[in-house]
Write a structure and sequence with these properties.
The complex is a heterodimer of chains A (about 550) and B (about 140).
Chain A (H helix, E strand, L loop, with lengths): L2 H16 L3 E6 L2 H4 L3 H15 L3 E6 L11 E4 L3 E3 L7 H7 L13 H5 L17 H6 L4 H9 L2 H11 L11 H10 L6 E6 L8 H8 L1 H15 L3 E6 L4 H16 L15 E6 L9 H8 L23 E5 H13 L1 H5 L9 E8 L5 E6 L4 H8 L9 E6 L5 E4 L9 H6 L8 E6 L4 H15 L5 H18 L5 H17 L3 H5 L2 H9 L1 H10 L24
Chain B lengths: L10 H12 L4 H11 L3 H10 L11 E6 L2 H5 L2 H12 L5 E2 L5 E6 L11 E3 L2 E3 L4 H13 L1
Parallel strand pairs in B: 1-3
Antiparallel strand pairs in B: 1-4, 2-3, 4-5
Classes of the chains: A alpha/beta (about 550), B alpha+beta (about 140).
Chain lengths: ~550, ~140
């Protein structure tokens, strides 16, 4: 495969598409599929044929606005329709070339205009199961360019220059990580794509894998070339059957086109990738636990160092990056590191995909440049809190992150700014809560999550989260005392300082951040025995409360 | 197993295959997998119990899985779980005595845009209300 051959494929796809007057893109991501967008697509194909229109109906990946699904996008007019179902097919087909159907039209300029799509540039425009569609949108040019024109060091140089940081949550500079793995000695090296998106409330990785799997594979192959790896693994959650199916399909197509396997693009570089299924363990998002899981063991983390970059999968040097990190690679190599570094804030470059969920009007996936304020995301793009309720907090970073109150909405979103206020970027889940949510109850929910997901290897995390849960439950049902609150704070510090892996170290974050910003709610529960949000079921302080002794 | 060349590290993959064929992992299956892949039975059993996805009990004829991820929780799945538990008379994670319905909870199925989400026999239903869910349970119960 050469650049010319890629161009040929792209040209033939474009010529094929040009035969049609209209392209009808039907979203078939998990969200829209659950509302039968597959039936809608079939109905549209029939309706278009019956109406005698010269139009092409295409299955695409997620268009982002999951709240308004199923979505249909008509090109080249760029008309977006929302809440479509099979019964609308004939109306839609009849409107082609004429006036758009006003009743179904979705006008959310504000939602889309403030976004910058890099990772999601193809989502909603290509058929995720057709490699040629991806090639037609400049796919695999970056890989061919890297293999034929650049040395591995030059690739790493570009990535370093771009300032890309790990999108899985930690924010470790990607270029630095690649450099470490490429310098590590070893005959065999591995690349792992971390698609174990355990963070509840986040679905960016699922969406990217479902909508544009080739992009992730291309990024991974370039990474393998840069660090000298010959084998890769995709670790994907078993809860995402559609993503797994589309990824399997993507690997097969890439092999057929000679873009994966031996001597890729007629160069000496060989690389192959396999899929490994997760089995529902949050802790497996942690690098060393993920490696243990790929090796077929219980997903328990190991102390670091040695870091996986030196001794990872089967004690070989291993590069682990998140799905979204890999999805950023191809555009960086294609357009250069400087282009990427031109976006975002000073220390956090590029764009970030957020999954906007909870009590917000436009739930779904958004991609924004780093440094944009939370207020712009929530009130502008997200459309604010619905049903006349008032905004109370936004939770970022999943169970390891923190809850931020309305006063902090004007901070810019970047790795450092979020850590400074006690939250974290995490993988990009953003859950909005309104006045019907009780922050103590939310903290209890996260601790319960961490408690059940703790792998049980180290004691601070295993026992600490359980005790924190007991304390929070007491506060929630009205039997807590101020002494419990002090104990909770000191327990948080202990668990944070002494846990082995990221899960334990960050488990107290939701408690600490809610204590910091919503302490009055804790006091309300303890002293006044009331829950203003009306969530907690507070009974009169029971006489036997003292018996619930906390075993430290 | 053959697909993965009887490699020891393919233990999780193999257990996935067994579970998708039989619906759950019984002692015989785990023993067989351990012997075939030449891994200690303790490791096979350890893996099967460590991961939430693997079930050691046979599932009911129908399964209702309620997502209790953060986004769904904020939108009130705790009430859905409580209502379903009350209707079926079993705690989450169990199957009714007649073997008809299993009530499970999941940690986020990644469809948070449509919260609260319930999986009925693996089919994803978004924006579920308590009434809709109970109706579905009722339909299954009278089958």
């Amino acid at each position: 495969m050469t650049i010319e051959e890629l161009e040929q494929i792209a040209e033939s796809v474009r010529a094929e598409n040009a035969k049609f007057d209209h392209e009808i893109n039907v979203c078939m991501g998990t969200g829209c599929l659950s509302q039968h967008s597959d039936q809608l697509k079939d109905a549209l194909v029939k309706a278009v044929a019956a109406a005698g229109k010269n139009a092409f109906v295409r299955r695409t990946g997620c268009m982002g606005l999951c709240a308004a699904g199923p979505l249909v996008l008509v090109d080249p007019e760029e008309i977006l329709y929302q809440h479509c179902n099979a019964s609308h097919a004939e109306t839609l087909a009849a409107s082609l070339g004429g006036e758009p159907v006003a009743a179904l039209q979705c006008d959310l300029r504000e939602h889309f205009d403030q976004q910058v799509h890099v990772v999601l540039e193809n989502s909603g425009h290509i058929d995720p199961e057709k490699i040629d569609d991806y090639i037609a949108r400049d796919g695999y040019q970056a890989l061919v360019k890297a293999l034929t024109e650049m040395s591995p060091n030059e690739v790493i140089q570009q990535i370093t220059e771009s300032g890309l940081r790990g999108r899985g949550g930690g924010g470790y500079p990607t270029g630095l990580k690649w450099g470490t793995v490429s310098k590590a000695s070893g005959d065999l090296k591995y690349v792992i794509c971390n698609g174990d998106e355990g963070d509840p409330g986040a679905f960016m990785d699922r969406s990217v894998l479902e909508s544009d799997p080739q992009r992730v594979l291309e990024g991974m192959t370039i990474a393998a070339y840069a660090v000298g790896a010959s084998k890769g693994y995709f670790y994907v959650r078993a809860e995402y059957p559609l993503a797994v199916a589309r990824l399997t399909n993507c690997l097969r197509d890439a092999r057929r086109r000679g873009l994966l396997g031996n001597n890729i693009c007629n160069t000496p570089f060989s690389f192959d990738a396999e899929i490994r299924l997760g089995a529902g363990a949050f802790v497996c998002g942690e690098e060393t636990a993920l490696i243990a899981s790929i090796e077929g063991k219980r997903g328990q983390p190991k102390p670091r160092p040695p870091y996986p970059a030196v001794s990872g999968l089967w004690t070989k040097p291993t590069l682990i990056n998140n799905v979204e990190t890999f999805a950023n690679i191809a555009p960086i190599v294609r357009k250069g590191g400087k282009w990427f570094a031109g976006m975002g804030s000073e220390r956090s470059k590029g764009t970030k995909v957020f999954a906007l969920t909870g009590k917000i009007t436009n739930t779904g996936l958004v991609e924004v440049p780093m440094g944009i304020s939370l207020r712009k995301i929530i009130e502008g793009i997200g459309g604010g809190v619905p049903d006349g309720h008032t905004f109370k907090a936004v939770q970022t970073g999943g169970p390891s992150g923190g809850c931020l109150p309305a006063e902090l909405l004007d901070i810019g979103v970047s790795y450092d700014a979020l850590v400074k206020v006690g939250a974290m970027m995490g993988s990009g889940g953003m859950i909005v809560m309104d006045d019907t949510s009780c922050m103590v109850n939310v903290a209890r929910f996260f601790i319960e999550f961490c408690m059940t997901e703790s792998c049980g290897k180290c004691i601070p995390c295993r026992a600490g989260t359980a005790q924190m849960h007991t304390l929070l439950t007491r506060i929630c049902n009205g039997s807590g005392t101020m002494a419990d609150l002090d104990l909770l704070v000191s327990l948080c510090a202990t668990v944070k300082e002494t846990s082995l892996c990221g899960l334990g170290q960050t488990a107290p974050n939701p408690v600490l951040s809610t204590l910091k910003y919503f302490e009055n709610e804790y006091i309300d529960h303890i002293v006044h025995k009331r829950c203003l949000a009306g969530v907690c079921n507070i009974q009169a302080p029971a006489a036997d409360a003292a018996e619930l002794e906390v075993l430290a | 197993m053959r697909k993965n060349g009887f490699a020891r590290h393919a233990l999780i993959e193999t257990l996935h295959t067994v579970q998708s064929s039989f619906g759950f992992l019984d002692d015989d299956a785990i023993r067989f997998v351990a012997r075939s892949l030449k891994v200690p039975l303790s490791q096979a059993y350890g893996v099967a119990t460590f991961y939430h996805h693997f079930s050691l009990k046979p599932p009911g004829k129908h399964t209702m899985t309620i997502c209790t991820g953060t986004a769904c929780y904020i939108k009130g799945t705790d009430k859905l779980v409580a209502a379903a538990e009350k209707r079926l008379g079993i705690p989450q994670g169990q199957t009714t005595k007649d073997g008809k319905i299993s009530l499970m909870t999941a940690r986020c199925v990644g469809a948070c845009g449509r919260a609260p989400v319930v999986l009925t026999d693996g089919e994803l239903c978004g924006q579920m209300s308590g009434e809709q869910m109970l109706e579905q349970l009722e339909r299954w119960a009278v089958e």
